[in-house]
Write a structure and sequence with these properties.
The complex is a heterodimer of chains A (113) and B (116). Chain A has 113 residues and is mainly β. Chain A contains no helices and 11 strands. Classes of the chains: A mainly beta (113), B mainly beta (116).
């Protein structure tokens, strides 16, 4: 099973450039999440989605956008990259309800120069 | 408030010792408290979890202690092994009938090193 797949694994962006981080899951999970991980800061929730067409902001949504047109895919869009967005980004998915495990992708390491 | 506070930031334990990581929260809407383990270059993976109606849960060498009145929970790793060296995250999930249902919030993480 593929689980949660993120692409690309690494990316270097110049300030002001845009890009989309891709996330797809094959477990038919309703819930999907985007986190960023900065050293010593843990995982900060950017956006999450409870199903196709439904998204909501997390703790640090500024500078990002998401869409959820299908159950499988939950792309994260950076419109105007800034050095502060240099981080490791993780996508996760889980089935509906509490008391269920979230499955994480391998992460995307993004550097903005 | 959605914050989950975790301590310590780093921890060094000798092989065979007990590792203890603590977390605290404010939001009473949290309904599920998982712990995740992350090895370098990998995504976090679920280690053990607890509901607030239970005061303790044990799985092998890993135990969660939960104090609902103090809004605190902790992870204890008994007989710590070098293979346990990883970053550990506590987390909390918003329960049903609350705004932001299923929002999953993580602590800052604890980097554990178990020395042989």
């Amino acid at each position: 099973n593929a689980g949660v797949t993120q692409t690309p694994k690494f990316r270097i962006l110049k300030i002001g450039q845009s890009m989309t981080l891709q996330c797809t899951q094959d477990m038919n999970h309703n819930y999907m999440y985007w986190y960023r991980q900065d050293p010593g800061m843990g995982l900060k929730l950017i956006y999450y989605s409870v199903g196709a067409g439904i998204t909501d902001k997390g703790e640090v949504p500024n500078g990002y956008n998401v869409s959820r047109s299908t159950t499988e895919d939950f792309p994260l869009r950076l419109e105007l990259a800034a050095p502060s967005q240099t981080s490791v980004y993780f996508c996760a998915s889980k089935t509906q309800g509490t008391n269920t495990e979230a499955f994480f992708g391998q992460g995307t390491r993004l550097t903005v120069v | 408030q959605q914050q989950v506070k975790q301590s310590p930031q780093s921890l060094i334990v000798q092989k065979g010792g007990i590792s203890i990581i603590n977390c605290a929260y404010e939001n009473t809407a949290f309904d599920y408290f998982p712990w995740y383990q992350q090895f370098p270059g990998k995504g976090p993976a679920l280690l053990i979890a607890i509901r607030p109606d239970v005061s303790e849960k044990k799985e092998g060498r890993f135990t969660i202690s939960f104090n609902k009145s103090a809004k605190q929970f902790s992870l204890h790793i008994m007989d710590s092994q070098p293979g346990d060296s990883a970053t550990y995250f506590c987390a909390a999930e918003v329960g049903p009938f609350s705004g932001g249902y299923n929002k999953l919030i993580f602590g800052a993480g604890t980097r554990l090193a178990v020395h042989p």
